[in-house]
Design brief:
The protein is an alpha/beta fold and about 625 residues long. The protein has 22 helices and 22 strands. The chain folds into 3 domains: about 150 residues, no CATH class; about 120 residues, Rossmann fold (3-Layer(aba) Sandwich), CATH 3.40.50; about 270 residues, NAD(P)-binding Rossmann-like Domain (Rossmann fold, 3-Layer(aba) Sandwich), CATH 3.40.50. It starts with a helix and ends in a 19-residue tail after the last helix.
């Protein structure tokens, strides 16, 4: 039957440019039919003569009143093929308005025509319901037929939507209105028991653990996450099932990111690997952090980098007196400047370009702003590059930190928070050893001054400069191969916001001299990470793209550590932050050795510099490096 209607409707010009007068005429014809049919129902298809003689006048009166109400509310203005709930509401309002006018006319006629109604009130009520039903039904019928006509040439894709809230419903509506692809939502998934077993827009809601059964029974092409699942284990379980069955996974953005409050197909994106590695939000004590930075001048070095810029963003949420953004990278610094000024609308900050190894520039900075708190994120971080340039690693990571720390003491900075790395633990590279030397210096300095020196240590951060994920993504987009140094290499990962939140928390609770280490969760095999990224893009490993192992780079570890062999930890009030118990260092000895090391920078004698670094950091054992031959033999 529907197919016959479709064949007929194909020749009716109800396009997006259908004249409004044609819709108005159809609506008025429906009103004429409704009042006639109401009389028939009311009198059991035997209309009394007193009404049948005046039936034409009554129909004319009803049509005139309906016509007047249509001109006011304009129910004919909508595009029928896109009829929505709003259109149904408009039909309900216009019909109710016209019915009220008929009741008023009846009321007037009752008093001026010898106590008689023009139309019996019961018929007016019946007419109301019939008119609403028919005006709505024919629109929905036309919408359905047009959808079938539009999609008759398209391949149908069965899809599943995870989430049954507003976003889930909006996702279904958006997919069904897509003109390019014919989507059929076969199921909703949810992890909330009170929703399971019900229906949403006629579609069954299943528990998420029924996904495998649905895939077995239907040819599922896509799964849409319409909400961000807080339970990461559930999200990962669903993702693994989908990837195993070659089902494309997409994510709907949060409702506050929809354009003009409406969800559109281009806003729905593929799930990224970062989404799967996220962990539950960290619960912080904002009052504690605010008390620490309230009305303070805060200096952030490396403010244009991935970590430094995020620290800046998070500090804008507190009542800082002034933020000083210091970096030598001009273009990235300009971008964070634009972001603060245009997007965040933040005003209490200053942009300063300079190098932390330039003493006169730094002293001028401290004299000008007199910072109360310093977040030191500026550093060289790339392991292989620093293996080839030990002098530059020492210049920036050791000497730059020492200069900054010395000026912090001289100008009575209250707290100095250094961003370190897990590569400083049992270092196998020049970069890691340089960061460990910087840790040692500020630890030893802490005992002889009023400034509280605090170190924070964590592993790789997702999306940071130099992270494997952006590199893998570029390699996949260019067709591969994806290059990995070793099949067994593992790394810890943490999101940039998560890491910076913990840095601020460490600033608030640190008293000085501590090395705070962050709970990084489980380490991840890099090859598994790459495989999952490839599958998320819909490519087949071995067919569409290859993985190549290139061998460990100079100084690179197979796995990272957060603690030295001779260190252990004590807990803090926050479950994700621990304090490393470290060895004590004599400041005078450390200072003499560091000055000797720094004095060799200009000579650029890599061998002498690395030998001296190994003397100062006995646990520094080079790996895959020409400097391994200088490691001291353990007895």
């Amino acid at each position: 039957m529907l197919q016959k209607i479709i064949n007929i409707i194909r020749f009716i010009p109800l396009s997006s440019s259908t004249p409004r007068w044609l819709i108005l005429v159809i609506d008025l014809l429906i009103c004429s039919f409704s009042i006639l049919f109401s009389f028939q129902l009311r009198f059991n298809f035997q209309i009394p003569e007193e009404y049948s003689n005046d039936l034409i006048k009554i129909v004319s009166l009803v049509v005139i009143i309906r016509f007047a109400s249509f001109l006011i509310f304009k129910p004919f203005a909508g595009i029928i093929r896109y009829t929505s709930v709003k259109d149904t509401e408009r039909i309900l309002m216009v019909t109710l308005f016209g019915t009220c006018l008929l009741i008023v006319v009846n009321f007037i006629s009752y008093f001026f025509l010898n106590g008689q109604n023009i139309i019996p009130n019961g018929i007016i009520l019946i007419d109301f319901f019939i008119t609403v039903v028919h005006m709505t039904s024919y629109r929905l019928l036309i919408k359905t037929v047009f959808a079938e006509i539009k999609n008759s040439t398209h391949r149908k894709l069965n899809v599943i939507i995870y989430g049954t809230g507003r976003a889930g419903l909006a996702t279904k509506i958006t997919l069904e209105h897509d003109s390019a692809i014919r989507y059929k939502v076969i199921a909703f998934l949810d992890n909330q028991d009170h929703n399971v077993g019900k229906k949403l827009e006629g579609v069954h809601i299943y528990s998420y653990d029924k996904l495998t059964n649905l895939i077995d029974n239907f040819s599922v092409s896509m799964l849409f996450f319409s909400r961000k699942e807080r339970d990461q284990d559930i999200r990962n379980e669903i993702t693994e099932i989908c990837l195993k069955n070659d089902i494309k996974i997409l994510a709907v953005p949060p409702a506050n990111n929809w354009i003009d409050g409406e969800l559109t197909i281009p806003q729905i994106k593929r799930v990224k690997i970062e989404d799967l590695l996220e962990r539950p939000p960290i619960i912080l004590d904002p009052s504690r952090i605010n008390n620490e930075v309230n009305n303070k001048v805060v200096l952030v070095t490396g403010a244009a980098g991935s970590i430094g810029s995020e620290i800046v963003r998070q500090l804008t949420q507190f009542r800082v007196n002034k933020l000083i953004l210091f970096d030598q990278a001009e273009s990235p610094l300009h971008l964070i400047d634009l972001e603060l000024f245009e997007r965040i609308r933040y005003k209490t900050y200053e942009i300063e370009i300079g190098d932390i190894t330039n003493k006169s520039r730094l002293e001028n900075l401290f004299l000008t702003y007199k910072p109360d708190i310093v977040f030191h994120a500026a550093a060289y971080k790339h392991v292989p590059l620093m293996e080839y340039h030990p002098a530059e690693a020492v210049r920036t990571n050791v000497s730059g930190t020492k200069i900054l720390a010395d000026f912090s003491v001289k100008y009575q900075v209250k707290k100095f928070i250094m961003i370190s790395t897990d590569k400083a633990v049992n270092p196998t590279s020049v970069m890691g050893a340089s960061k460990r030397l910087a840790e040692i210096y500020i630890q030893s300095l802490n005992d002889f001054c009023l400034t509280s020196f605090i170190t924070t240590r964590f592993g790789n951060v997702l999306g940071s400069n130099g992270s494997v994920i952006p590199r893998f993504r570029k390699q996949i987009e260019s067709g591969g191969p994806v290059t990995i140094t070793h099949p067994n290499i593992t790394r810890y990962f943490m999101t940039i916001p998560e890491a910076c939140q913990l840095v601020l928390e460490a600033c608030a609770i640190g008293q000085g001299g501590e090395i705070f280490i962050f709970n990084m969760g489980k380490s991840i095999r890099i090859v598994d990470l790459a495989k999952k990224m490839i599958r998320l893009t819909g490519l087949k490993l071995g067919r569409d793209i290859q993985i190549e192992f290139t061998g460990l780079r100079p100084g690179e570890k197979l796995f990272e550590e957060l603690l030295n062999d001779k260190e252990n930890t004590t807990p803090t009030y926050h479950p994700k932050i621990l304090i490393a118990k470290t060895r004590k260092y004599n400041f005078d000895k450390v200072s003499v050795l560091l000055n000797e090391l720094i004095s060799k920078i200009e000579d650029a004698d890599s061998v002498f510099i690395v030998k001296l670094m190994k003397d100062m950091v006995p646990e520094f054992k080079s790996q895959n490096s020409k400097f391994a031959k200088f490691d001291k033999k353990e007895v």
